[in-house]
């Protein structure tokens, strides 16, 4: 029998009746047709299914949809704002941080969470934060570069309004 | 005459990738993203035993589950003559087991249901009564007298031996060994590993019951070849089969074979009349689909006292699993393993190979390498390291002494390959300079005095990639040419359609760049399409680093074909003789007056609007390119490691990779390919292992047991390049997708052996894990 849940996905409230055993990743992919979240291993190792649940990276292949009831979920489809790429998306393209693209959504979401907690991460910080996300194509070097580059972009973007505000006061 | 070249995307330009725009937005279209109306889902019941006779299969409980549409068994398939299928190596493979199961994870029965969860539940309810038989888990065991016969269903098969294949000259090699001052020997095992692309394999089979048309969405590295094989296996008329390979989440060889799941899903769709989806989970991927390596190798090098190599003798025993399903050209029973003479001028070589059936998964694929070149490169580079150690020569010195010299190209090898071009000393010197080799040797000597273990590994590999030529190389009889179709539209924009299929290599960008170079149309104006057999010219697909050597050559040739026609049109527009027309970067002009010119866009428009009399309309063409030879990428990789005597832990401090893949189309993409290969090589050298217990249970069936490198372990790479163009390739490129996986494992392991060789340790088989290193140290009394 279905259990009613309401999850805010990419800012939009989505309600559904789901089987209690339905995995969050299947809820996102099959019920909401948000197929940017991928499945790579089923056992929480590869991170292809990483989404943000209330801002924290979670592997959606080992979380039930009912556990996400009442929470905020962000998927790759929710990264853009007002038609503009998130700096992490732009940086992954710019630094050639992806090849087949299958791990990319999970990599980017984990990176977004890292940069929120740590806006100026060292190389080791980045590598450690991403160590739950496997990439088989890139060898990680360009992913690390992309995260560093996004950090710089985001810092600059954050400083511009602050400087403008300071100049006005 | 100099003409301005403002165009972007010529060969050598690191333009950003066109395909990324959809991937960074989560808008790729991978197999599992495909949903068709009325689509059903398939789940497979697999054997828990490595070797067992099937006494009975009871599907009643599965069939009774609400939502189950059908249960398919081998018996049902046998009624349609589909219980067995041919393999890529001319053997047969069970689609669903009817008599025995021959490896753990073998496909036994399938459930088709209206929901994937229901299909899985029901598959677990299928009751199979097994009579367990003794399992054969090594090829040595398989070839012993009295070993259980695995392929008892095969007529005339009296033992577990599959093939014997030789290359080179035995008598000449024996002679070389007789003259040698010394012989250095190395026995090594290249263990079974798995390509493990992040996306597993899958299919959505959609057979229209009214028309008989089958649209098969498949994770396929070779959609055209698969279409033909499907026509042969399933008996469907080939014009009714359309294979669409969507975005592929990594391949590395795993998506070259045809797997039983594809066949059952197609048969089920045909019988039921609805689309059927099957997507493997990771466990299924690791235990049943295309493994790699599993070569037991023994090499002997005959040397003079001054370090000159006189001959090479190699014996190799391959473990092919329960069905000989290796993906490789028909003539070559052990793939291209006979490239084992590597970068060295070996006048005599003899290679003897044998294969054996075991109760393990079938389908040997070349995990990011060209048909077993990886194993060959590993053996020779490890053997040279052994020789250097035993002869107390520097590993660089023995290599320099024996390299094929630049002036010897084209070079005919003792096992029958004609190497196209190379400059091995130059690549090695550049790598040594980048590393600061001499300084590190001093540091190593200092450290050794203090009892600290540090090693510098060298590997100077040579690959053979880019098959054809078609007269020697084929897949299941299909010649290994490849194709490109180019259509330039009236507005000067173009579509390029290819027979190869990207799995992340960036074809949509790099192949457009070849057209840009040849025709001057900006890369941004060229759409590249692949993977749909109804919509692209026939080709053999992407593996064995063949896309650029073969498909890239086809692209250059079709562009030149169109350029020749464009010249005629330009002559007409410029009111000049065709013989006087010159072309430079997208502009046609009359020799001597470059100011009077027509762009490729002008000419394209005229091809549809203003043609000279007698010329066919349009600016479109297709080329099927059969390469005259293979290409031979090479390079030198250097690795520095530090080893903890207390734990055996190996830390890769530095890794310098100098690659020569000929002309680089997009250097950014080339470097990305090398990074990926160096990482997979690192994983193979230190982490990745699919192994089995004595009952044939697969250890390595998930990512807890089968370890893949993450960002944390993976070393940082320092890159270098030399460029020695291939003389026979239209743009001088050689292919680069696999060089780093081929060359790097030996460099990593040689670094470990370099650190511990002075203690008398000559070999540690991969994966070189801490426990193995510690045990080796401990045996020599050198562990802490």
Q: Summarize this, please?
A:
The complex is a heterodimer of chains A (about 170) and B (about 775). By secondary structure, chain A is of the alpha+beta class. Helix content of chain A is about 40%, strand content about 15%.
CATH class call of the largest domain in chain B: Alpha Beta
Strand content of chain B: 15-25%
Number of domains of chain A: 2
Order of helices and strands of chain A: EEHEEEHHHH
Distance between the termini of chain B: 71 Å
Classify the secondary structure makeup of chain A into a structural class.
alpha+beta
How many DSSP helices of chain A?
A: 5
Strand order of the largest sheet of chain A: 2-1-5-3-4
Largest sheet of chain A: 5 strands, mixed
Number of strands of chain A: 5
Low-confidence stretches of chain B: 1-7
Terminal Cα separation of chain A, in Å?
Answer: 59 Å
Please tell me about this protein's structure.
The complex is a heterodimer of chains A (169) and B (784). Chain A has a five-stranded mixed beta sheet, with helices on one face. In chain A, helix 2 crosses helix 5 (141-168). Chain A is an alpha+beta fold. Chain A has helices at 24-31, 87-94, 104-117, 123-129, 141-168, and strands at 3-9, 12-18, 50-53, 56-59, 72-74. Chain A folds into two domains: 3-78, Beta-grasp domain (Ubiquitin-like (UB roll), Roll), CATH 3.10.20.30; 87-161, DNA polymerase, domain 1. In chain A, strand 1 and strand 2 form a beta hairpin. Chain B contains 19 helices and 35 strands. The termini of chain B are far apart. In chain B, helix 10 (373-391) packs across helix 11 (395-402) and helix 17 packs across helix 18 (739-756). Chains A and B meet through helix 2, helix 3, helix 4 and helix 5 of A and helix 1 and helix 17 of B.
